[in-house]
Amino acid sequence: TMSLYNDMVSNIERRKIRRESGKFNAIPCPFPKLSEFYSGIEKGKYEMVTANKKAGKTQFTDYMYVYHPVQFCMNNESDLDIEIHYLCLEMTKEQKMMQAMCHFLFVDSGGKIRVSPEDLRSKTKPLDQEVLDAIIKYEKFFLKYLDRVHYHDNYRSVSEIRKFTSELCQKVDPKSEKITELILDHFSLVIPNRGQSVKQAIDELSATVMVQARNLYKINPVMVQQQANDKESFEAKKLNDLLPSFNGLSDSKDTARDVDVAMGIFSPYNAKMQMYSGVNVNAYKDNLRILNIIGGRESTGNKEVALYFDGAVSCFRELERNQ
Predict the structure, then answer these.
(1) Partners of 54 in the beta sheet?
(2) DSSP of 135-170, one letter per residue?
(3) DSSP single-letter state for residue 320
(4) Is residue 222 within 8 Å of 183, Cβ to Cβ?
(5) pTM here?
């Protein structure tokens, strides 16, 4: 007991000294108002993103847990660094990289280059030469990005993900300042082991694999989980119970017990609302998202901000309530 106490005191002291000398203990939250309730990405935390279908939960996960933290670490040559292992169950790694290219081209060109992954694939018309030139010009940046971000599209079953996570745990140093994220998008697409239901598969991954990775190795699991379809039903609308919640989690509600923080993404436009909490939904249509901290071990929950969302380039920015 004494050694646990001593460890805690030295950890608290170390973090205090780090902040005093201008170093970071967490990757700051990109949304100023939200940062009053959420300090950012801190080593050894388990986080969840949940939303109904087509609400942008993957784009939000990419922005919040991949693009923003990687850009932050590149811009601030600090000892706080990040490495991300992204288990894509919904897309291929090529599709994920295309999304990243669209995002960074948009951000770095100050909004001048705005192309979607469909444009990059020359789906309807040939890609503009200047965009191709820009991608080639950014080669060094994208190679540095891929040093930190590893997309995996070949682990799908519970046993494959368990084995991958266990090998990752052996490679990390729990005492270093480097954050290692393990993102899984999304839970319901996991292939259960023989004889398992989807719920049992999710519960095994969350309560044993991800919780152990966090507790023993200070890894940061980020799990994407859908809301059940009935959250969009007439009953839900009638009760105005549309915001993502722990109660609305699809396939297993038990994951709520495991996470430190859960973020919900909601589209008032998809819910056919005219106004949402003082924001004119019709003015933004499908570009409006409500980001809600649902809760978790470290949050009382129900803290929300309105965000402007540009889906083609996976960009989010906070809106003032009177905008």
Answers:
(1) none
(2) HHHTHHHHHHHHHHEEEE-S--BHHHHHHHHHHHHH
(3) P
(4) yes
(5) 0.89
If 0-12 CB within 10 Å is exposed, 13-18 middle and 19+ buried, where does residue 286 land?
A: middle
Tokens of 260: 């430190």
CA–CA distance, 50 with 58 (Å, rounded to integer): 9
Ordered per-residue pLDDT tens for the chain, 323 residues = 678 767 766 776 776 766 656 677 789 999 998 888 888 999 999 999 999 988 999 999 999 999 999 999 998 876 788 999 999 999 999 999 999 999 999 998 999 999 999 999 888 889 999 999 999 999 999 999 999 999 999 999 999 999 999 999 999 999 888 999 999 999 999 999 999 999 999 999 999 999 999 999 999 999 999 998 665 555 556 556 678 999 999 999 999 999 999 999 999 998 888 888 888 999 999 999 999 999 877 666 678 899 999 999 999 999 975 44
